[in-house]
Input
Amino acid sequence: MFKNSGVSLRPQDRGPAAKKASRRREPRRHTVSNGIDYNMIKRLKLLEQEKDFLLQGLDVVERARNWYLQQISNVNDKLDRVSKWDIPHSEYSMDAQHERLNFQMTRISEVNQHLNALMETSEKGFPIHMNLAVHQRSIYSAQKTATQTIQRLKNQNHALTEEIAKKSELITQLETEKSALIRELFHARTYPKKEPNDTTLW
Output
């Protein structure tokens, strides 16, 4: 039996098998010539890009908040005027105001849905395969809203065209009647009728 001499072998003295096992345990790292981890650089760039997008989104949200507050203030002013029957003649017609409200409500609803979906996916995690589906739904929703808006505007334009045509006909009729009345008045002043017993000389 050989006794243990108490001398431990260094890693470089353990032979090819030990070196191969040691290399197998080390994680594979992609490095550039100066030894910096390439994956770390990519990760830093992605994080910086994410930060930039978040800052842009924050700026939009802050401007959106100011816009919402301004719109609420405008609506409160209109409510106050309506309650006092102080409605300017320059206000939109009911049809135009209803059209504007529908368009605005549709856009606000879409924005709220996208923001809620963004916050939910950020909290629960976002599957990669859902990216394309969300993008396609966004495009379809935007196209549908645009189509509906265009159709409503066409219908409104057609109705306004008919109303203008009717008013033009009415104006023409009134102008004709006015001309006839002026001719009758001129004729009556030029050739007044005499009463049977009237001896007044003209």
Summary: The mean pLDDT is 74. The helical segments are 16-25, 38-83, 94-124, 130-190.
